[in-house]
């Protein structure tokens, strides 16, 4: 979001919107939908903040997207007030985001400052849409163009007129764990391009210290070595004494559920780096130019808790500062794709290692019979992908799980399954739908696919049968 130890403040004109300390005697609260759990799925809605802030927006009743969960009051929110930058909202109402694609303003002749969706205050180039929502999983597409506070686009192609655009797909399962797939389309993939920064969003009326434990960041590597880093009055620490080749991070926000993120392990140390220093009246850095603010500004340090604010804690693969880069999933002449697992957890950071292995080193799936085709494991959707040669056949398979390649909540996308439901059996025992597994359908232009997500965990080979049933 910003380069460490560099603060650029750009303020243009008069303030468009001022956030008051209270509305009808109460402190405003960032909106995330109804309190408590609700039916798992993604929903279009219109999230309201304050009358003064809501009034100028020229939007309808389906302007925002909320993913809710049936096993807790946590949420995953795409809201105009954050420029649709998606945020996990914990059971205690603490917001968190893994950032977005950001470019350096001085690398393009027509831009300055922070070139990012944070600068898109009116969501001119940012929107979210629901691609898939069923009992087994949710897929939301967020598309945006990084801009500076003047709404200028970087790296405009002189022949086509196209500039940078980004597609992010979030595949989320009922346990609030999923995959973020980020693709940036750009004429200059060789220049500085940031993909992740751990950011806590502070509710209006709160200091960062009220939302974040002083032991703010816990890191782990694939061997299970871990370390928690403490922020002091002098601000953030360095990460020099942490676990070797750390690739898993957990942000210790207040509450029982904590945000986490993990990527493929690096070749050397230095993949995850801290955001050092601190702001006024806090152990943590904090800025109030985002969210909610409509001022043409970036890098504005907060001086009070009157406005919502945000605190940056660390980066994964910050360009130019880490010897170990976050490896791309795919590259092309004018594009880069990266993937990361993310979500909420109540586990210690080292206990996330089996989950990480199940994604980074997914066990092999072996089919019994020839009625299905096996397209293998797709890490971009955290699922095994198969295709039925005809509707109505029973699927029998073995997942060759082990300690190094465990099966943790495996999911299956079965193309051409048809409209039938399914019963699932593991090692000869029937699973209960809703309790042991979730099932949903996805209708495409040429087939009806079955999505199955399971709560199964195993470090030994397991036999799975998925049998079609009439709903």
Explain what you see.
The structure is a single chain. With 471 residues, this protein is mainly β. The chain folds into two domains: 310 residues, Distorted Sandwich (Beta-galactosidase, Chain A, domain 5), CATH 2.70.98; 108 residues, Immunoglobulin-like. It contains two helices and 33 strands. The strands form six sheets. Strands 8, 9, 10, 11, 14, 15, 16, 17, 20 and 21 form a ten-stranded antiparallel β-sheet that branches. The radius of gyration is 22 Å and the shape is globular.
Topology, element by element:
Layout: E1 41-45, H1 51-54, E2 64-68, E3 75-78, E4 87-89, E5 95-97, E6 102-104, E7 114-115, E8 126-133, E9 138-144, E10 165-172, E11 177-185, E12 193-194, E13 197-202, E14 212-220, E15 226-230, E16 248-253, E17 258-262, E18 272-274, E19 309-316, E20 330-332, E21 335-345, H2 353-360, E22 365-367, E23 372-378, E24 383-388, E25 395-399, E26 407-408, E27 411-415, E28 421-426, E29 429-430, E30 437-443, E31 448-454, E32 457-458, E33 462-469
Structural descriptors:
33 strands, disordered N terminus, Beta-galactosidase, Chain A, domain 5, 8-stranded antiparallel β-sheet, 3% helix, globular, 10-stranded antiparallel β-sheet, 2 domains, 471 residues, mainly beta, Immunoglobulin-like
What is the compact description of this entry?
The chain has 471 residues and is mainly β. The chain has helices at 51-54, 353-360, and strands at 41-45, 64-68, 75-78, 87-89, 95-97, 102-104, 114-115, 126-133, 138-144, 165-172, 177-185, 193-194, 197-202, 212-220, 226-230, 248-253, 258-262, 272-274, 309-316, 330-332, 335-345, 365-367, 372-378, 383-388, 395-399, 407-408, 411-415, 421-426, 429-430, 437-443, 448-454, 457-458, 462-469. The chain folds into two domains: 41-350, Beta-galactosidase, Chain A, domain 5; 362-469, Immunoglobulin-like (Sandwich).
């Amino acid at each position: 979001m910003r380069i460490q130890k560099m603060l650029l403040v750009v303020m243009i004109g008069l303030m468009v919107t001022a956030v008051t300390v209270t509305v009808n005697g109460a402190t405003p609260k960032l909106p995330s939908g109804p309190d408590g759990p609700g039916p798992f799925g993604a929903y279009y809605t219109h999230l309201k903040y304050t009358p003064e802030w809501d009034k100028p927006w020229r939007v309808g009743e389906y302007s925002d997207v909320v993913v809710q969960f049936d096993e807790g009051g946590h949420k995953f929110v795409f809201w105009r007030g954050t420029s649709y930058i998606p945020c996990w909202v914990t059971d205690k109402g603490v917001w968190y985001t893994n950032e977005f694609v950001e470019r350096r303003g001085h690398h393009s002749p027509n831009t300055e400052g922070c070139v990012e969706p944070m600068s898109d205050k009116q969501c001119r180039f940012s929107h979210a849409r629901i691609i898939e929502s069923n009992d087994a999983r949710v897929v939301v597409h967020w598309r945006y163009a990084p801009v500076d506070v003047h709404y200028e686009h970087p790296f405009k192609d002189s022949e086509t007129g196209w500039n940078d655009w980004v597609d992010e797909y979030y595949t989320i399962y009922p346990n609030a764990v999923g995959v973020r797939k980020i693709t940036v389309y750009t004429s200059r993939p060789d220049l500085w391009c940031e993909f992740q920064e751990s950011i806590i969003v502070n509710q209006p009326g709160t200091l960062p210290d009220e939302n974040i434990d002083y032991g703010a960041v816990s890191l782990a590597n694939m061997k299970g070595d871990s370390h928690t880093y403490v922020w002091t009055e002098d601000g953030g620490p360095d990460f020099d004494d942490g676990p070797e080749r750390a690739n898993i991070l957990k942000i210790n926000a207040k509450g029982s559920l904590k945000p986490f993120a993990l990527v493929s392990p690096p070749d050397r140390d230095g993949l995850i780096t801290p955001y050092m220093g601190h702001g006024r009246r806090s152990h943590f850095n904090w800025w109030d130019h985002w969210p909610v603010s409509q001022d043409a500004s970036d890098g504005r340090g907060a001086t009070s808790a009157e406005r919502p604010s945000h605190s940056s804690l660390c980066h994964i693969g910050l360009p130019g500062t880490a010897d170990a880069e976050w490896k791309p999933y795919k590259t092309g002449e004018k594009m880069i794709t990266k993937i990361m697992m993310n979500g909420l957890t109540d586990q210690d950071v080292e206990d996330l290692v089996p989950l990480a292995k199940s994604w980074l080193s997914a066990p092999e799936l072996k089919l019994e019979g020839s009625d299905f085709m096996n397209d293998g494991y797709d890490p971009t959707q955290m699922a095994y992908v198969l295709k039925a040669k005809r509707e109505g056949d029973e699927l029998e398979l073995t997942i060759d799980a082990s300690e190094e390649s465990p099966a943790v909540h495996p999911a299956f996308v079965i193309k051409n399954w048809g409209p039938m439901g399914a019963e699932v059996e593991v090692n000869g025992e029937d699973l209960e739908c809703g309790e042991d597994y979730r099932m949903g359908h996805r209708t495409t232009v040429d087939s009806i696919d079955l999505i199955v997500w399971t709560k199964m965990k195993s470090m030994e080979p397991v036999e799975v049968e998925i049998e079609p049933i009439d709903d």
